[in-house]
Amino acid sequence: MSQSSRFRRALVTGGGGFLGSYVCEQLLSAGVEVIGVDNFSTGHRSYIEHLMSRPGFTLVEADVSEEFDTPGSVDLVMHLASPASIPEFYRLPIETMLVGSYGTHNALRIAHRCGARFVLASTSEVYGDPLKHPQDEEYWGNVNPIGARSVYDEAKRFAEAFTTAYGKKHDVSVGIARIFNSYGPRMRPDGRVISGFIAQALDGVPLTIHGDGNQTRSPCYAEDTARGLLAIAESDYGQPVNIGNVHEVTIRDLAQMILEVTGSRSPLKFIEADEDDPRQRCPDITRAERELGWRPQVALKEGLRRTAAAASKPSADWN
Ligand code: NAD
């Protein structure tokens, strides 16, 4: 986001989470007042401790799946609240579906009442285990509706359908970000591949790889992802937009890069593959480049270096 914004006051659901904390930070830096709403079911106060004393930031502790409201009016609603990693949506399956459905409805209602722009944080998981590669936004996906990950995938697919229908019916300006794997400082090590590998490398224990390690991901640095979400907000674009990095890497190579940036000598340990784990994940970001002029700026090696440096600080608080 540029130094200034067309928005004055934003509501960020999931503002106390990993990506939410970057979104709040960038909005505040652009001069936007921010109300972060979070129930801390997966996020943590430590993520936004540095924002609490910043003028213009307010934290509201609430469950957005229940009816909630904002103090005063807003002109932007960013809906990020949702469990977002495998162990978290396994632990919170019903909550995941409720925040994708009721939570999305409640956030949209606020946008409608205030005449605000609305942005949904969706996910590359809507493509499931994709049969098309790389994935562009025209691809409809290959999702198992009752698989282990379905509570998340289908909640987000529902949220996209709901957002689109609600926007049309009530004339609300809506945007949809399909976010691919993001990483960076403050990411918890449980269930997230990069921060998990970094924690294992720093602890000198084996880096555990699910399956053969030839499955691919395209990790995007969190600051770039947040910039992408805010580029969608600033535009009036209404179709889904992939926000991710096109640098595709196998999990095995990612583990090697992490050993290199941390200087660790941990071995790799191969364990059972995750159910419905996608083999290939890489976004086609032509639409984001064309419609928003957005593309990631932080190269993978540099982002891994920054993430590892933050994790190795004695004060690093993952939880
Ligand atoms: P996160 O778990 O760190 O953040 C989500 C936040 O939402 C947490 O602070 C959590 O406490 C809050 N939350 C969950 N349910 C809530 C509820 N009912 N009411 C209020 N707050 C609630 O996860 P993240 O990685 O920051 O993800 C943020 C958003 O981006 C999610 O919607 C996720 O699906 C999406 N996303 C993230 C990634 C990624 O790689 N991090 C990839 C694709 C999509």
Produce the secondary structure layout:
Blueprint: E1 9-13, H1 18-29, E2 33-38, H2 49-52, E3 57-61, E4 76-79, H3 86-91, H4 93-114, E5 117-123, H5 150-170, E6 174-179, E7 182-183, H6 193-203, E8 207-210, E9 216-217, E10 220-221, H7 222-234, E11 240-243, E12 249-250, H8 251-262, E13 268-271, H9 286-292, H10 300-312
Parallel strand pairs: 1-2, 1-4, 2-3, 4-5, 5-6, 6-11, 7-10, 8-13
Antiparallel strand pairs: 9-12
The protein binds nicotinamide-adenine-dinucleotide.
Residues 13-14, 16-20, 37-43, 63-65, 80-84, 99, 103, 121, 123, 179, 181-182 line the site of nicotinamide-adenine-dinucleotide.
Strand order of the largest sheet: 3-2-1-4-5-6-11
Order of helices and strands: EHEHEEHHEHEEHEEEHEEHEHH
Mean pLDDT score: 93
Task: Could you tell me the CATH topology label of the domain at 9-182 and 220-245 and 281-297.
Answer: Rossmann fold
* Number of H- or I-type helical stretches: 10
Largest sheet: 7 strands, parallel
Please bin the fraction of helical residues: 25-40%
Number of strands: 13
In short:
The chain has helices at 18-29, 49-52, 86-91, 93-114, 150-170, 193-203, 222-234, 251-262, 286-292, 300-312; strands at residues 9-13, 33-38, 57-61, 76-79, 117-123, 174-179, 182-183, 207-210, 216-217, 220-221, 240-243, 249-250, 268-271. It is built from 10 helices and 13 strands. The chain has a domain at 9-182 and 220-245 and 281-297: NAD(P)-binding Rossmann-like Domain (Rossmann fold), CATH 3.40.50.
